[in-house]
Every structure is written in structure tokens, then in C-alpha cells.
């Protein structure tokens, strides 16, 4: 084999190994991250987009890196890349999990949880407000160009944890767990106005029941509670949209901070 062919073969092997490592870090984004993992997007399309994104990020990730030729070493690097990509994707998806959790709490409180239907975005059964909050979060994500935020943050991870570097798994797991524990608190922040309005409505009907025991509170209270809940949901959605926009930027920053500490 001529020296030119040897050089081409070596470069081809290095480029292929770099592409596989970058694809391993990108793949979790298309498995669990919002919009990227939507079931409305066919699997073949997601695969093509993931490969295209890996091709675009490969030159950035491979800059100044010397990849090993050993198969076992490359396999270990692939596992490491999967863990880093999973930590980043989880930090982004937990924001949407908090929003849908808020919708589930309100569905249970208002009474919409009795009529669960299939969510076209996730394929799971969910009630009306859960789907509404999920769609609002997705719409805000698209409007504020969240795709650029997420892809830019993913590209930044290759500077914080290069392809050949080994992060501290304990610090990585600690950061992800710390983000995971904030889901319920974030859900309460989103649902707080409607939650407070429904609690006040329940207290008011409790007082009315004590004053007028003959009143059928279940027949009268349920539709009024639904109306109050929907009115407050409509009034609070602009504030929820602003909260989602701020938290998306914060989620990307926290994900990068977690990877940086690891």
C-alpha cells in the first residue's frame, strides 16, 4: 500500500472513530430531550438529524484530540460519551417534566383527571391541563429558539469534557440528582396560582356548606371549580411562558455547570 493510501486509511479510521464518539454523546438528546425525542417525528428522521448533527460537531470535538486505536479503549470512550450526553439531555428534559407535573397536579385538583386521553406528543394517557401545559412549554421552546440553546450547549460540552477526557462519574450523578430533586418544587411554582385559587374555592364552599347544609355542594361546586380553574389558568399562562423561557436558559447553564464540575 502506498503512503498516500495508508494516510487516507488512517484518516478514515480516525474520522470514523470521532464520528461514533460524537454520535454517542448526541444520541441521548434524541431519546429523552423535548422536541428532539417527539414521537411525531419519525425515527428515521431523528436518526438522520442526529447523524447530521454529529457530522457538524465532529470537527469541533476532534480538534486537538488524539483518539486511541484500541477497540476496548474506544468502547470505553463510547460509554463515557453516552453518560455525558445522558446527563446533558436529562437536565433539559427535567424542565418539561416539571411543567407536565404541574399540569397533572391541576388536573387532579380541578377534576379533569377523570377524563384522561392519549397525548399525541408522548403517546401516554394524560388529562387536559397536562397536555395544555406540555404544548405551551413546547411552543415556548420553539418560539425562543430553544433548539439553538440546546445545540449550542451540547457543542459547549465538548470543550468542558473532551472526547478523550474522563469525567468524575460521582460528580456527574450528583449534579443530575440535584436537578432531579427540583422537579416538584418547580411544578409547584408553575401551578401555584391555580392551586391557590382552587384551594380558596374549596374553602369558600366548605363555609357555604356549614351555613346552608341543604346545598348540594358536589353538584354546584364542581362546575364552579372548573370555571375558576380555567380562568386562572388562562390568566397565568403568560407568566408560565416567561418562567419556561427563563428556566430553559437556566437548565442549559446548570447542565453545563454539572458537566464542568465532573
Strand order of the largest sheet: 1-2
Largest sheet: 2 strands, antiparallel
Overall structural domain count: 1
* Rounded average pLDDT: 78
The radius of gyration computed from the alpha-carbon positions, rounded to a whole number of angstroms, is 24 Å
Q: What oligomeric state best describes the polypeptide chains here?
A: single chain
**How many helix segments?**
9
Strand-residue proportion: under 5%
The first-to-last residue Cα distance is 44 Å
Unreliable segments (pLDDT under 50, ≥5 consecutive)? Answer: none
Shape designation: elongated
- The helix-strand sequence is HHHHEEHHHHH
Briefly note the structural class of the backbone.
Answer: mainly alpha
- Number of β-strand runs: 2
Instruction: Provide the helix percentage.
Output: over 70%
Brief sketch in words of this structure:
This protein is mainly alpha-helical and 262 residues long. It is 78% helix and 2% strand.
Please provide a written account of the structure.
With 262 residues, the chain is mainly alpha-helical. The protein has one domain. It has nine helices and two strands; from the N terminus they run ααααββααααα. Strands 1-2 form a two-stranded antiparallel ribbon. α1 packs parallel to α4, α4 packs parallel to α8 and α4 packs antiparallel against α9. The radius of gyration is 24 Å and the shape is elongated. The model has no long low-confidence stretch (mean pLDDT 78).
Amino acid at each position: 500500500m502506498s503512503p498516500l493510501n495508508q494516510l487516507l486509511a488512517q484518516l478514515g479510521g480516525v474520522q470514523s472513530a470521532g464520528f461514533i464518539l460524537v454520535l454517542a454523546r448526541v444520541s441521548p438528546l434524541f431519546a429523552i430531550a423535548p422536541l428532539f425525542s417527539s414521537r411525531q417525528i419519525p425515527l428515521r428522521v431523528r436518526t438522520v438529524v442526529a447523524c447530521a448533527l454529529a457530522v457538524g460537531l465532529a470537527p469541533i470535538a476532534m480538534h486537538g484530540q488524539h483518539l486511541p486505536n484500541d477497540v476496548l479503549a474506544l468502547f470505553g470512550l463510547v460509554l463515557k460519551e453516552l453518560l455525558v450526553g445522558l446527563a446533558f439531555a436529562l437536565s433539559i428534559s427535567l424542565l418539561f417534566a416539571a411543567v407536565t407535573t404541574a399540569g397533572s397536579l391541576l388536573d387532579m385538583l380541578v377534576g379533569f383527571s377523570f377524563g384522561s386521553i392519549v397525548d399525541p406528543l408522548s403517546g401516554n394517557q394524560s388529562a387536559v391541563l397536562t397536555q395544555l401545559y406540555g404544548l405551551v412549554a413546547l411552543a415556548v421552546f420553539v418560539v425562543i429558539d430553544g433548539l439553538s440553546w440546546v445545540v449550542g450547549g451540547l457543542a459547549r460540552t465538548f470543550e468542558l469534557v473532551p472526547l478523550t477526557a474522563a469525567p468524575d462519574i460521582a460528580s456527574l450523578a450528583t449534579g443530575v440528582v440535584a436537578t432531579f430533586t427540583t422537579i416538584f418544587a418547580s411544578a409547584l411554582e408553575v401551578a401555584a396560582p391555580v392551586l391557590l385559587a382552587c384551594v380558596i374555592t374549596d374553602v369558600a364552599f366548605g363555609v357555604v356548606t356549614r351555613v346552608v347544609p341543604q346545598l348540594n355542594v358536589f353538584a354546584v361546586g364542581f362546575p364552579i371549580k372548573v370555571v375558576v380553574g380555567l380562568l386562572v389558568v388562562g390568566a397565568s399562562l403568560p407568566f408560565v411562558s416567561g418562567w419556561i423561557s427563563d428556566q430553559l436558559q437556566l437548565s442549559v447553564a446548570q447542565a453545563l455547570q454539572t458537566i464542568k464540575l465532573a
